[in-house]
Design brief:
- This protein is mainly alpha-helical and 115 residues long.
- Helices cover 49% and strands 10% of the residues.
- It has a two-stranded antiparallel ribbon with strand order 1-2.
- A hairpin with a 2-residue loop joins strand 1 and strand 2.
- This is Lytic transglycosylase domain-containing protein.
- Residues 14-56 form the Transglycosylase SLT domain.
- It holds the Pfam family SLT_2.
Length: 115
């Protein structure tokens, strides 16, 4: 959820039409969302776990992450953040408190984070 929507703080659909805190495409949600609400964080995390398991996790996290988002940079970033949190759980709080910037029609704007 950190990589997809900064823990649900970015609340818009993607340019490709992905929705919710885990940014599911509607067809993928129908297959793996287990009847839940695509906008509900708990339902979205459970659906992501369901999808990742179906595509190779935990046996092959790289393969599963690549199925979720076919970008090597995405796969590398998610695994790096996961390793950092595993080494030091306080890293989660640091990531959670990062500021989120988005580009809007009015320019860059801070959405969250320390002021």
């Amino acid at each position: 959820m950190f990589a997809e929507t900064k823990f649900g703080r970015v609340r818009s659909d993607s340019h490709a039409g992905a929705q919710g805190p885990m940014q599911f495409m509607p067809a993928t949600w129908r297959a793996y969302g287990m009847g839940g609400d695509i906008q509900d964080p708990r339902d979205a995390v459970m659906a992501a776990a369901n999808y990742l398991r179906a595509t190779g996790a935990p046996r092959d996290y790289r393969r599963a992450l690549r199925a979720y988002n076919p970008s090597q940079a995405y796969v590398d970033a998610v695994l790096l953040h996961a390793r950092q949190i595993e080494r030091d759980p306080r890293a989660y709080y640091a990531y959670y408190n990062w500021q989120v910037f988005v580009i809007t029609t009015r320019g860059e704007r801070r959405l969250t984070g320390p002021r």
